[in-house]
Fold this sequence. Notes:
By secondary structure, the protein is mainly beta. The protein is built from one helix and four strands. Strands 1-2-3-4 form a four-stranded antiparallel sheet, with no helix packed on it. Strand 2 (about 30-40) and strand 3 form a beta hairpin.
Amino acid sequence: xxxxxxxxAATSPMTxxxxxxxxxxxxxxxxxxxxxxxxxxxxxxxxxxWDYFTLLRDAKGWHILNLCYYAE
Length: 72
């Protein structure tokens, strides 16, 4: 939600892309850890960083349990 708000409030358009992704799945297929390197471009400024997700799958689908992110 905070990311959506940041894009909506930006004074100029921002584009974000995933540059690299690594996913590790637990042996039973219920838990996944994902690392995503991202790039955010706004006018002439580029920021890169990482998102680290922990996900859990249940009968309704995948749910984010934890997200840690930072810019390099």
